[in-house]
Amino acid sequence: MSGLKALTPRGRSFLASGVAALLCALVLGEQDLLRVAVLITAMPLLASLVVARTRYRLACARRLSPARVQAGEDSTVTLRLENITRLPTGLLLVEDTLQYALGTRPRFVLDRMESRGVREIDYKVSSDLRGRFPIGPLSVRIADPFGLVELTRSFTITDTLVVTPEVVPLPPVRLSGEYSGGGDSRTRSVAAAGDDDVAPREYRQGDDLRRVHWRSTARRGELMVRREEQERQSRGALLLDTRRHAHRGEGPRSSFEVAVSAAASIGVHLSAEGLALRLVTDQGARHVVDTGQSWSLLDTLAVIRQSTARSLEHGVGALRQGGGEGLIIAVLGALDPEEALALARLRHSGVTAVAVLLDLASWDGASWDAVAAENARAARSVLTGGGWRVLDLPAGASLAGVWPEAGNNRSAA
């Protein structure tokens, strides 16, 4: 019955034609027509029986190279099929499952796979949209040589392609940050220019003798050991405004997508500079990125979505509770003076604050009214007066072009 259900339109046409010819032959008493009717009817039935009783055993593996790409870049998917039975296969129709954002489903035809044979198939996928996209499962359709019967078998394995925001290389800019240490050190503010030499101290009961500092011991006349010093690490916070009402436009070129790309670019740049970063949104703290682990930030930003929040209250609260961060960078959409004032109060002595303000008028066009424009100017003035370094990012502009202004401390209080 499974074979009969798998009849293709051609197979059903053969079967219907055979039955019709058989009835005509019986009515007219034509022996030759009867023989033809039996042949036409038997072909799809025999094909169904053969295909249904065939027991192919195929192994499938999928490889993504690379498994993480930026929006708009290609990834190569390699399918590896192996016939692990002693019988050669017939015609195989291979189709992989993709989400619409990755393009049309790839289809391939394999004429025959010998016993223990292996076939590898490559195809490319890409997406202009961020996200995590499952690839698979793979389906294999088994057909007879005449195309009368077709059975579908599916594998269960799937793989995930991570499409991250576009990352723009940024020029080096000197930014000060808060360096936190451990052991015998204390938290202190320094520029991103390295650590001081570690000073020895007096020997204490239980100290490891391998830490004895012999030069200081000879000079002081008493046993001295090197201090236990953890590597001091610069820490900062990155605020991303994800409020839906604070952004304009749709699709990959909307202000929200530009903001996500800017946050990704800044995060990757600062992580490469040795900064431990904390990602915060208007919903509160989201993620902590260790030095050199920018891929985890990109994975988080790959799936971030717009929120329905109306204010930055939770984000400002999360920044305030963080503490010990010498650098705050905010990527902001529409901002009113009250929200700007709350952000301005986060900056104090020893803290560098940078705001990337999206020029929403360049996205909004004619719908950007005078009230919104006045609020934007007032918010910018409040941030600048609070010692923030403000960067304006209009539609179509590259963050790399305005990023050097982040090193301009003329507005710093």
TrEMBL record:
Keyword Transmembrane helix attributed: yes
Where the record annotates domain DUF58, the positions are 201-282
Endoplasmic reticulum as a keyword of this entry, yes or no, is no
Entry's transmembrane regions: 39-56
Return the InterPro entries for the record: DUF58
Which keywords appear in this protein's UniProt record, sorted alphabetically? Answer: Membrane, Transmembrane, Transmembrane helix
Which Pfam families does the record match to this protein? DUF58 (PF01882)
Q: By what name is this protein known?
A: Membrane protein
Organism (species): Microbispora siamensis
